Amino acid sequence: MAVEIRELECFLVLADELHFGRTAERLYLSQSRVSQLLQSLERRIGGPLFERTSRRVALTPLGKEFLTSLRPAYAALERVVENARDFASCVKGKLRIGFQGTANDIILAAVSVFQSQNPNCLIDTCELPLNDPFGALRRGEIDAAVVMLPVAEDDLVLGPVFSRQPQTLTVSTRHPLADRDSLDLEDLADSVLIAISGPAPGYWRQAQAPTQTPAGALIHRGPEYRTLQEGLSLIAADRGGMVLCRRSAEQNRRADIVNIPLTGVPESALGLVWRRGEDTPSLQAFAAHLKED
């Protein structure tokens, strides 16, 4: 049977006071309610905790043993609650989160739950340029960024990784590979991939648009794009293909392009990134809500 916290509190106060009247006053209860709580606890335990007469109240041997074990456990529970209260009181102000592309269901759910659980902290979201995943974060315009992996920046911390997705090759319906049911990266030898432009680091751009197959065959670099819609337009105009995660591909279907499952490349994933040394209680609370789907 589950023990009620109120019963344990009543027992501890009565063990201190050894008087029902004073116990009732400290707990803002009636004496009859104190008696009810104590009797309920004794039934759960299976034996009397106090000897009660008209003249005195004293702990039984069982009561003394129970008190010895309960005090440190109850004190530890109080510390847990107090620590949680202190943490919650720090989650306040404003938290600014940036994201690349479209905020998916995981991000939106994390924002919603965070806001409902932390009404003293206003969470703001903004879209980041696809071609500059880290710039706004380094300029202090946002507190954290949800970006496509990989992330290997010395001044940034990679937190939870989520939304892992298989990759696809997105091409025009007129592309030579458009009628394939599936592809391996080796099949892209001598093909053209359009690439993200801008200040993103080379390793990150290479992950989004490889320039060679695992066997070393060349994959040509096509025109560059800054936004996803700009990239899709280049694909439709037969300027090249694009490696795109399955979720984004499904969300951006068009009649003039096709999405073909692609193996031989790491799966796509998103990660929450923030400046090293700046993981505030608000940021920690938000990061805890970002989970695998």
Automatic annotation (TrEMBL):
Domain annotation HTH lysR-type: ranges: 3-60
The protein's name: DNA-binding transcriptional LysR family regulator
Family matches, as InterPro entries: LysR_HTH_N, LysR_subst-bd, WH-like_DNA-bd_sf, WH_DNA-bd_sf
Sequence similarity: Belongs to the LysR transcriptional regulatory family.
A GO cellular component annotation in the UniProt record: protein-DNA complex
GO molecular function: DNA binding; DNA-binding transcription factor activity
Organism encoding this protein: Kribbella steppae
One Pfam family recorded for the sequence: LysR_substrate
Gene3D superfamilies with a match to the protein in the record: Periplasmic binding protein-like II, Winged helix-like DNA-binding domain superfamily/Winged helix DNA-binding domain
Keyword terms of this UniProt record: DNA-binding, Transcription, Transcription regulation
Phylogenetic lineage: Bacteria, Bacillati, Actinomycetota, Actinomycetes, Propionibacteriales
